[in-house]
Amino acid sequence: MPKGSPELTASRKEEIVSACERLYQTMSFKEITIKEIGNVTSFTRTSIYNYFQTKEEIFLALMQREYEEWSEEMRSLSEENVIMSPEDFADALARSLDEHRQLLKLLAMNHYDMEENSRPERLTEFKTAYRASLDSVRGCVTKFFPEIDSERFIFVFFPFLFGVYPYTVTTEKQRKAMNDAGMEFKVYSIYEIIYSCVIQLLGGEK
What we know:
The protein is mainly α. The protein has helices spanning 6-24, 34-39, 45-48, 55-80, 86-98, 101-107, 111-116, 120-144, 150-161, 164-168, 172-180, 190-202.
């Protein structure tokens, strides 16, 4: 790591992660390289290695940032409300994640390879952010629905999130393949599928 203030180091890492995020909006994970990221930052490819050793570490940092932002929203939701109905909570949670499509897209990636190709300290930083997201959602469920088993909610809801993006965003190639295969496939919005899941877990709208 090059010498510099913690603030400068954080700023440079943020620039790299933000560049990766911009590229990921129009390119696939496979297409994006550290060279490509370097082309849209003020860094050379060699300089990027001072902060991230692999492309996977940069993507992991991007997902970490998404989790941190979402966790803060969930903590604010708990702090700003005394009570919430299942319908209101499902609405708030679905809207929040609908605004974090980047997180849902990242969740649809191969986490095993991403984590295996990241240094232990980078992985620990990511897991800390992931744990915060678990805690923030668990805190909401415990506060608003004390009769609900919050651990069961977490156990079902978080794995469910890994499949939201593929079920709500399809390419023309995928739609054609499904039509050719004779599949009847209705595409739901991110809001619809998350709202439905949360409502079922909370027993609302019976």
